[in-house]
Amino acid sequence: MKTIKIVAVLIAMMWVSMGQVSIVRAGALLQDLENQLMCKCDDKCGKVLINCTCSTSDKTRAKFSKMLESGITVEQIVKMQVDEYGETVLSAPSKFGFNLTAWMTPFVALVAGGFGVRKVLQSWVGKKGDSDSVETPVAEPKVSEKYSKRLKDELDGIEL
Amino acid sequence: MNDIGEFTLLVALATALYGCVAYVMSARGNRIDLYLSADKTPFIVWACVTISSICLWKAFLTDDFSLQYVWAYSNIELDTFYKVSSFWGGQKGSLLFWTLLLTTYMLVVYFQNRKKNLRVVPYAMAVMLAIVVFFLFLINFSTNPFERIPLPPEDGRGLNPLLQNYWMVIHPPTLYLGYVGFTVPFAFAVAALISKNLDDSWIRLTRKWTLISWFFLCMGNLFGASWAYVELGWGGYWAWDPVENAAFMPLLIATAFLHSVMIQEKKDMMKVWNMSLILLTFAMTIFGTFITRSGLIQSVHTFDEATLGYYFLAFLFVIIAACSALIIARLPLLKSANELDSFLSRESSFLFNNLVLLGIAFATFWGTIFPIISEAVRGVKITVGPPFYNQVNVPIGLALLALIGIGPVIAWRRATLSNLKKNFLKPVTAGIIAAVALFPVIPLGNRAEIYTYVTFVLCVFVLTSILTEFYKGTVSRMGLHEESVVGALTTVTWRNKRRYGGYIVHIGVVLIFAGIAGSQAYGTHTEKHLKMGESFEIRGYTITYKKLVAIEATSIKTRIIAQLAVERDGKPYWTGHPEKEFYKGQNQPVSEVDVLSTWKEDLYMILADFREDESATIKVYVNPMVCWMWTGGWIIAFGTMNSMWPDRLEQRRRLDRVRKQEQLFPSPAQE
What we know:
Chain A is mostly helical. Chain A has 6 helices and no strands.
């Protein structure tokens, strides 16, 4: 109970801090933009803008900096880029429509797998229980119960 | 020489084809004459491929530009070091290099097993030879490295400047050794299915091969990350490029396999699952080559002349179809008495570990192929880049990290509440202390920082759980044999190589997790345009631009080097020399970064640009804890070596177990 309380307090503290802390970093907007877009150089380098070092990416960065300074928002710039190059300019699929399946499928698969593993484990444990019940001899007198408990306790303490 | 190289490739193909058929016929028809004849083929194939490779190397070293491949990937000025590595710089040579490694592995397997396991080995050799036939077919008839140019030019086009790095000599061979190595356990698994020898002997026979392949694949991935870090000049090491993903997926599946085979060895369970995992691992290695050589998915790693996609796709389809059919046909024999004592046991934790590892592999696979799916369904090609993988894989990766800590402290067979309490007390307490201690220190302003905080807490939990295991073993040994701490620790680790080697590998993995978390969340960078003598500050470092030097390194390479003096607390600390290299005939210059690496952080400098007035644009990154990742890699290497080292005690224990079993259950003949 005590541990649960500690964990609860910690979680509460985390959420409070998330609300309070808002560290604004220089260039964060540009960095955000660079993370969202791919480099569209002639070499088709296939890199996210933030990771690209080609001359086109340098020019693009400079252009975006000026656009941000002039008051255009990140979302507006992203939209302009999508209009110009199509969805392929985005570094990750959007989170609506068909593209949502890109985001959902891994987690759906994982959850389904989790249920599958649980079911398999239940059947294996159940099987062992069944076979144990078949093989278990008729109950021994009280003395063996005492020793069985002691044996069980000692076995529990052994790391194989 | 070139004619010899070309001819030996044809001989190798014919011999491999014959060997494959002869091995199968000898095993099916119990024909010793055919077996003896087939048994010569692995050596002949290896010898032919080796001769052919030597011929190609000679062509590179002697600047024989009559070969189109040598012309395309080398030139007279190229350093000898890189002429050797140019061999695998393009598609044609890399396929030959792959085949050379494959036949070399095959030869070692052949010498190891030629006089034993005669029911399984002929089929395993046949499978390996069949794979060799596929590669030799491609080399001979589709991408021949000995293709000539009618009028040989005087000089070659040269190797891509990005590939002129010492990692080019280390990274591709290491990765290939990993990829190719999985052919051996795959071949033995298929052989076990064909020959119906479906106990765990194929796992024991190939355990070391699996470990070796896993080790090389793991190192190959880390070396690739290291290469990207020092060569590509963007301050990062992993970009979730499709080809990086292709090397990452088999590593994950093989890791799942390495864990789940322990359950088969201990309890004779999960035979179908283990079979499926090794087949999937091999299929993923072929999928990786398909991505690199198809040009279907855009990647920085794709070969210029990526035209072999359909061959690999067909090969992949054949492998998956044939292996699935074999597994289905052998299902009755693969059935085992799957029984568990308790839901709470190490066996269960291994199943969840498998689930999480496969979950990450699937998410990575899904992200890699989603652009194709999108194009097929909507007619719109999209990009799936790092933001997707980071958002999807990081939470699953954290679950994996937690399981690394849970595994060692949860008992085999059945964990009870009392031993769970006892075993988890120290790791959980350490985790809580870390959580409280780090809370005021670590910023939690965004998702990345929260993930990092959770990662650090989990790292402490996992490390404590592993170190507790070492502590328990050492103390128990000290009590029994009156040994010193160091002596007891060494003996415990050496006498239980597999178990403690595994724990050491886990420590390495923890360091990698910590390094990734630290570098991703707390890194910073800045870019400044400076005149000589000007300075700027970044995270306590004062960086002064001193001068710019131009050096004609060779007739085709000019180096422009910036000298940057770094001060810390007003005292000289280091001098960085980032540079740009210009190669004749190349559009883009290559950045050569300079990095000062410490345990705390890397100071990473790039010469982004310079002008005629000798002013320069300098980009500086401060990347925390990157060094932890490389150290983690070396610890993984040490742990794997420890785990792989021949263990006579383990062999003796296994022999004793077999003898005891034979006494308990004598064979009908003995009765």
